[in-house]
Amino acid sequence: MQISRTLLYTVTLQLFLSEMHLMNQTMPTEISLEALIAGDRAEFAHLVDMYSSPIYRLGLRMLGNPQDAEDVLQNTFLNMLTHLSEFEGRSSLSTWLYRIAANEALMLIRKKKPEVHFERSEDAEAGENDRELLPTQFVDWSALPEDELLSGEGKQILDAAIQSLPESLRIVFLLRDVEGLSIKETAEALNLTETNVKTRLLRARLFLREQLSTYYGDTLSARSEE
Amino acid sequence: MTEHAHMNCEKLLGSLSEYIDGELDPELCQEIEKHLAGCDNCRVVLNTTRRTIDLVHAPTERPDLPDDVRERLFKRLNLDDYLNPK
Fold first, then answer.
1. Is the CATH number of domain A31-115 1.10.1740.10?
2. What is the average pLDDT score of chain A?
3. Does the residue B41 lie in any domain?
4. Of A39, A149, A178, B49, which residue is most buried, by most CB within 10 angstroms?
5. Spatial CA neighbour of A205 closest among B1, B21, B32, B17
6. For chain A, what are the domain ranges?
7. What is the 3-state secondary structure (H, E, C) of chain B?
């Protein structure tokens, strides 16, 4: 029974991710690149409305404050306008836009925190101690209802956990799991290999799981003592 | 996982993301499910990792663009006359 539920959940999540992926694939077809290049302002306004929320969210999660997120948002579209004629269509328009936004966010982070290194070599990553990945928290809090998990302190814990991810992992997690880009699109947007994206995604997911498990594990054990 | 950090737990952990995303071939999925059936800790790690991903999709975690931010953006892009239709 456990395995059947597991399979069902996998299929459901897969469908959800496919839908998100489909959204990313189909969105650009609603925007005419020719019209944008020709300077059609209505088409540009349409594009801005389609992508400003996800880009603002990305900026907010990467920089951690609304003012910086707004700078990322504005600079992304200004940069896009400047370089529109250079867009070669090797990736989708949305992936290209996410690429500009990710670069804007990372540039701003570097300006504020010069010690941050995003470009870790794949060899260095492969050589990192994989035992760091090993989970230490084994309380199953997954059946707790969503409103309880995200109420008050729970939401703050989730937000703080995402903020505490190293930038190189956070950007991968945000593009893939929050905005629903595929592994391939995430790799294109960040100029990484797909293998590198998968490695960073696994690290990010396990890191967040560990953080949330520590918190919800305490919540559950406090409840059982009552 | 320290209690039984044998090959299967570590192998499962390495493939966890792809398993969750449904990107593994059926043979490997079967191997993973066989391991999950007998390993409580790995089952907990799988369930809670899925739930973690699930939580970031909650509407409260995906706020829309605030109106004032949209307004300043449109003005910066010289799109003031397109501010109304959202």
1. yes
2. 84
3. yes
4. B49
5. B17
6. 31-115, 128-226
7. CCCCCCHHHHHHHHHHHHHHCCCCCHHHHHHHHHHHHHCHHHHHHHHHHHHHHHHCCCHHHCCCCCHHHHHHHHHHCCCHHHCCCC
Q: Does the distance separating the beta carbons of A56 and B61 come in below 8 Å?
A: no
Which chain A residues are Cβ-neighbours of B78 within 8 angstroms?
41
Domain A128-226 sits in CATH at: 1.10.10.10
Which ipTM value was assigned to this complex?
0.89
Partners of residue A45 in chain B, C-beta under 8 Å = 74, 79, 82, 85
Inter-chain contact A48–B21, Cβ cutoff 8 Å? no
pTM of the model: 0.84
List of chain B residues whose C-beta atoms are within 8 Å of the C-beta of residue A78 = 76-77
> For residue A174, what is the nearest residue in chain B, using CA coordinates?
B56
Over range A183-208, report the average pLDDT: 96
